[in-house]
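Figure 6 in text form: structure in, sequence out.
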């Protein structure tokens, strides 16, 4: 795999282990944004007239990367916007399964609306815990993050397929914000009914852009009619009155969604297969080396499947030491969160281990 550090100037100054908090801006993205604003500067409404063709290209780019038909891709400013819109379509009598201490944008959005709720524990037995609660509680919907934001625990996709096969009427709503952009994924072949994600982390697309993917049958399952503002569905909006149009009221931002396509183009240039292999190799090495230093919790150590996010034992003193040595990471939960992306290297890991 090519060295992609050169595309992200910040990496010349820092060891960046913080993609789980925020991705980086690439030079490609900066160039696109300059050209975009220049076109708007000299084009005005003539530039605006081209926006619909841009959004069609963005939906196709997202759909091609994640295995979803473009007409079932909704462009949203972030995961929270799309997920809250989705929940407004769900009858409050439905029972929803959540994971304890999952990302607040998932759990709080459900719990604050008064749904019937049941929970499964996040530990080394995550999949067994979920299966047990499903069998006992018979939920209608399972809403969850594919990768946990605090410690990087990743749910087994094969388990989800098995669970779906055993419970075909159970709807799966997933947050892929800490997942999308880390490995090859085929939404249509997955167990998921809905996948949403913000794109400012692992896709390195900047802020205020995200997407939601829907299986075809969801058009009959949900109908957010109350959220469609017809006065804002202009004659130039190609999906006026459509299922996806209901998740995109008003005007979309050409700068931010153009940024999403630009970021995906760079990921495709890197190669999604190569990206996946690079991340998995580095994550496996990091897990082994951090385990040697006894810095990982049992719930992570005892699982075969894991992401490239780790939460290590460490207080504020250690966190400040890392920052003073130009290692950028985050304090999350009771420790320090580290995250490795395709632009990271073994040298980054060695620099971290030296400071630890």
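Output sequence:
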């Amino acid at each position: 795999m090519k060295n992609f550090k050169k595309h992200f100037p910040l990496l010349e100054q820092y060891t960046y282990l913080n993609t789980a908090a925020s991705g980086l801006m690439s030079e490609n993205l900066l160039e696109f944004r300059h050209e975009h604003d220049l076109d708007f500067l000299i084009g005005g409404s003539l530039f605006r007239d081209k926006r619909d063709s841009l959004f069609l290209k963005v939906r196709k780019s997202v759909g091609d990367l994640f295995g979803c038909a473009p007409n079932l891709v909704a462009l949203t400013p972030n995961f929270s916007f799309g997920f809250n819109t989705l929940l407004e379509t769900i009858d409050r009598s439905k029972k929803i399964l959540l994971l304890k201490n999952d990302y607040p944008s998932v759990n709080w959005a459900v719990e604050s609306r008064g749904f019937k709720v049941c929970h499964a524990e996040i530990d080394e037995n995550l999949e067994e815990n979920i299966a047990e609660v499903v069998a006992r509680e018979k939920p209608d919907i399972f809403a969850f993050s594919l990768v946990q934001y605090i410690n990087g625990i990743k749910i087994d996709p094969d388990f989800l397929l098995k669970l779906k096969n055993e419970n075909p009427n159970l709807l799966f709503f997933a947050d892929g914000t800490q997942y999308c952009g880390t490995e090859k994924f085929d939404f249509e072949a997955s167990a998921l009914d809905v996948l949403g994600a913000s794109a400012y982390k692992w896709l390195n697309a900047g802020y205020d852009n995200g997407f939601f993917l829907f299986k075809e049958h969801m058009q009959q399952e949900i109908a957010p009619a109350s959220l469609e503002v017809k006065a804002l569905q202009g004659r130039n909006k190609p999906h006026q009155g459509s299922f996806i149009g209901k998740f995109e009221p008003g005007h979309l931002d050409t700068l931010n969604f153009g940024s999403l396509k630009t970021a995906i183009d760079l990921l495709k240039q890197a190669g999604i297969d190569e990206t996946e292999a690079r991340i998995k190799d580095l994550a496996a090495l990091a897990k082994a080396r951090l385990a040697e230093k006894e810095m990982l919790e049992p719930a992570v150590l005892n699982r075969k499947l894991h992401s490239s996010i780790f939460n290590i034992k460490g207080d504020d003193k250690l966190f400040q030491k890392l920052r003073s040595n130009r290692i950028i990471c985050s304090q999350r939960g009771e420790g320090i969160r580290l995250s490795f992306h395709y632009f990271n290297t073994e040298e980054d890991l060695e620099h971290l281990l030296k400071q630890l």
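Caption detail: The radius of gyration is 21 Å.
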